């Protein structure tokens, strides 16, 4: 989507959005402390976007294919860039990075009141994914004393801002301050992120699922049932689902957010808690998905409500459209939803829809489904026949 001439930059949009919320919460004359927090958040965001621009430039310079030694250097550069830019902002108090064993406690003369968690570069598998990304989340410092690790050990529901950046054919930043999910694209001429899509909404269902089926033998019975359901049962619109897996969390999740479906990184026998880190990967992504109307769960519990017990705690992840996540939750908690044997509405949603659509296509009949305006009324006649 091409930005309009009047499209705001990321900083302009956030300033306007946060200011509007500030006025609603504190009236037209907020205290100086509240106004200072708003300006500090804008300054912090400036540092984050600068880190994103630097890392994106470095990724483009490395190009494709990416040798392993250059990839390691790239990851080190990304982590160092994020840490330095956040320190120089002087608006953060604690930093947690996927690539650092311990949190960075900002020295007193450079301290702010925000705790920032981030994964500086995703998609580093061997072989690396062509589309890499970064994930970040912003918390308020929990107390007013000396910053410490407990300032970041918060559930994702406490986030005041989060985002992810996708380094692909263009640099895309998905960001939220709790007012919905918004897409910004880096304008190379201006070197600024411009709003290209506001209030992004995830479809209620999708036709794509993203999971590494190569580990199926190491998944538990519930996960294997989820995968089998995705493979054999059609989506709500009667279309058979397909699997698309890139191997970069940001790239895979971005497609699911935009198109609908399910992203899964389940637990395995060698990783009983999964691989995704709760604090700076699964948590912020779950919060962003919720802003877009989707859901994220471990199978049994909403990810957004889980409080990490350490900065590198892991959780299994199932996130995406409401329908697909409900199916996962139903399988894990033994509820009826999505089960053809126990959920009578499932026949209406799926089996009938794909059978009727196939028959209609053979006859050359155009159905309501072809215009994506709903399938419920279209299938009532079949059930009655």
TL;DR?
The chain is an alpha+beta fold.
Q: Could you give the topology of this structure?
A:
Layout: H1 10-26, H2 32-62, H3 68-89, E1 92-97, E2 104-105, E3 114-122, E4 132-140, E5 161-167, E6 171-176, E7 181-187, E8 192-200, E9 208-210, H4 221-232, E10 242-243, H5 249-259, E11 262-265, E12 276-277, H6 278-291, E13 295-297, E14 314-315, E15 317-320, H7 322-333, H8 344-363, H9 376-384
Parallel strand pairs: 1-3, 9-10, 9-11
Antiparallel strand pairs: 1-2, 3-4, 4-5, 5-6, 6-7, 7-8, 11-15, 12-14, 13-15
Helix pairs in contact: 1-2, 2-3, 4-7, 8-9
Describe the protein.
The protein has 385 residues and is of the alpha+beta class. It folds into two domains: 10-200, Fructose-1,6-Bisphosphatase, subunit A, domain 1 (Fructose-1,6-Bisphosphatase, Chain A, domain 1); 208-345, D-Maltodextrin-Binding Protein, domain 2 (3-Layer(aba) Sandwich), CATH 3.40.190. The chain has nine helices and 15 strands. It has an eight-stranded mixed sheet with strand order 2-1-3-4-5-6-7-8, sandwiched between helices. Strands 10-9-11-15-13 form a five-stranded mixed sheet, with helices on both faces. A two-stranded antiparallel ribbon has the order 12-14. A hairpin with a 3-residue loop joins strand 5 (161-167) and strand 6 (171-176). Helix 2 packs antiparallel against helix 3 and helix 4 packs antiparallel against helix 7 (322-333).
């Amino acid at each position: 989507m091409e930005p309009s001439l009047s499209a705001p930059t990321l900083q302009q949009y956030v300033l306007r959005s946060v200011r509007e919320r500030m006025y609603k919460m504190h009236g037209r004359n907020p205290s100086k402390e509240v106004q200072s927090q708003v300006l500090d958040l804008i300054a912090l965001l400036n540092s984050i976007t600068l880190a994103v621009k630097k890392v994106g430039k470095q990724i483009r310079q490395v190009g494709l294919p990416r040798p392993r030694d250059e990839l390691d250097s790239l990851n080190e550069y990304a982590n160092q860039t994020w840490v330095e830019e956040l320190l120089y902002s002087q608006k953060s108090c604690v930093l947690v990075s996927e690539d650092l064993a311990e949190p960075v406690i900002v020295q007193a003369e450079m301290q702010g009141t925000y705790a920032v968690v981030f994964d500086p570069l995703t998609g580093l598998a061997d072989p690396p994914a062509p589309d890499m990304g970064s994930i970040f989340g912003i918390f308020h410092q929990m107390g007013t004393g000396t910053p410490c690790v407990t300032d970041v050990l918060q559930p994702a529901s406490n986030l005041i801002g989060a985002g992810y950046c996708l380094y692909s054919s263009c640099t895309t930043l998905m960001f939220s301050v709790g007012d919905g999910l918004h897409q910004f694209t880096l304008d190379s001429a201006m070197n600024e992120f411009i709003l290209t899509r506001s209030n992004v909404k995830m479809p209620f269902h999708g036709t794509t699922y993203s999971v590494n089926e190569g580990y199926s033998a190491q998944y538990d019975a519930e996960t294997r049932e989820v995968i089998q359901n995705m493979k054999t049962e059609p989506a709500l619109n009667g279309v058979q689902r397909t699997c698309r897996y890139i191997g970069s969390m940001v790239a895979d999740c971005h497609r699911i957010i935009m198109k609908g479906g399910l992203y899964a990184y389940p637990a395995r026998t060698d990783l009983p808690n999964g691989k995704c880190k709760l604090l700076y990967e699964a948590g912020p992504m779950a919060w962003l998905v919720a802003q877009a109307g989707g859901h994220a769960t471990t199978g049994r519990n909403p990810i957004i409500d889980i409080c990490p017990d350490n900065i590198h705690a892991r959780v299994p992840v199932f996130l995406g459209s409401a329908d697909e996540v409900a199916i996962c939750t139903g399988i894990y908690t033994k509820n009826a939803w999505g089960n053809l044997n126990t959920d009578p509405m499932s026949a209406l949603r799926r089996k009938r829809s794909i059978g009727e659509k196939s028959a209609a296509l053979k006859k050359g009949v155009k159905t309501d489904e072809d215009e994506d305006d709903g399938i419920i009324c279209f299938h009532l006649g079949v059930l009655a026949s």
